[in-house]
Design brief:
This protein has 135 residues and is α/β, with parallel strands linked by helices. Helix content is 56%, strand content 12%. It is globular, with a radius of gyration of 14 Å.
């Protein structure tokens, strides 16, 4: 069974000082299914790694992408309207585009497991859309 990875859990995997690092590392290392990375989170992870950890961490992330440690997934063009619907439905959360798009991508792919550290935004989404949050 695959898991869709959000920015926070990916960042935590690379940052050994992050409070979520052990849980993120355990998820990434033990997952038997595919580790799916929405293309939309790659720039966010890249920025955080570069800003907080530097070039070496960025390069390690790039290598993982290139070597197929993750499977990158794009949101189909015809599903962008659904992102707006999710945004409107959960407007009180101050939900951003990427989080709404991850929820829609989960629908598109039929993936019910989301790896995230962002419980504030994803817990209400998980409850309403029947998603399981990891770790």
């Amino acid at each position: 069974m695959s898991v869709l990875l959000d920015t926070g859990v990916l960042y935590a995997y690379y940052d050994r000082d992050d409070a979520w690092h052990r849980r993120a590392a355990a998820l990434v290392r033990s997952e038997a299914g595919e580790l799916l990375v929405p293309a939309l989170v790659i720039p966010e992870v890249d920025h955080l790694l570069g800003h907080r950890l530097g070039r070496k961490a960025r390069r390690t992330f790039y290598r993982s992408l290139a070597e197929g440690d993750y499977v990158t997934m794009d949101l189909p063009q015809d599903r962008y309207a659904r992102v707006g619907e999710v945004y409107d439905r959960f407007g009180d959360l101050d939900l951003g585009f990427v989080d709404a798009a991850i929820a829609v991508l989960a629908e598109v792919l039929g993936v019910r497991r989301i790896g995230t550290t962002d419980r504030r935004h994803f817990q209400p989404l998980a409850t309403a859309l029947k998603l399981e949050l990891l770790p």
